[in-house]
Amino acid sequence: MATKKRSAARIIYHAVCAAVLLAGMFMLLHEPIQSWFVSRGTSSLGLHKVAAAGSEKGDNSHIRKQEPVFNFEEVAELDFETILMANLNKDDIHVIGGISIPSIDMNLPIGEGVAPYTLALTAGTMKPDQVMGEGNYALAGHHMNRKDLLFSPLLRVKTGDAAYLTDMKYIYEYKIEEQKTIEATAVEVIEDQGPERLLTLITCDDSGKARVLTRGRFVGKTPIQEATKEMKDAFQLEMSNL
Known about the structure:
The chain crosses the membrane at residues 12-30. Keywords: Hydrolase, Membrane, Protease, Thiol protease, Transmembrane, Transmembrane helix. This is Sortase. The chain contains five helices and eight strands. By secondary structure, the protein is of the alpha+beta class. The protein has a single domain, classed as Sortase (Sortase, Chain: A, Beta Barrel), CATH 2.40.260.10. It has an eight-stranded mixed barrel with strand order 1-2-3-4-7-8-6-5. It is globular and about 75 Å long. Residues 19-29 and 54-62 have low confidence and may be disordered.
């Protein structure tokens, strides 16, 4: 009887040790795995999705599958489940363009709206019917611990840096003019400001409680076939494919 009890105790002990080990491994690998899924998903939602809109041979991935969501106040912290499901439901993300800031190595697809799956893999438009190069073009993006994903690089941007948007017809250039911390409730910053043509980028600060606003002013637009080398390099475009 004593031998059976010792055997049962050993089994329980080893089971507990294995559970603790697995939990520790999950905690250790959780963030790298999460980051990998974000990077993989973002890369797969490249500008070819936008280019397909003008091609009869496109895969129809540019077609809106559902109505976009613009309720930014309900945006929640990015978690692993949302990232995983976004990768499994990429067709629900309506890619309409791209944003690049070469000085901080930021190059992201732009998705329509701020639905959870959209913000998990893209920069999301914060207002309906925004037009690049007009009004106050506002985008939101998540801030992650890995500093090269989504809007995390924005915390390294400097005044005077060039920022580019593209809809695969034109490339729109902006010059960064300011960056400041604002309250999470300061939603008025995304509204149009008279005739000014602005780019407003919103992400969380390191604490997650406040928001970081990065703002640029419109410089001009260039037909994509006439884009400079710097512009092409910013979006990693091969002109032979356009």
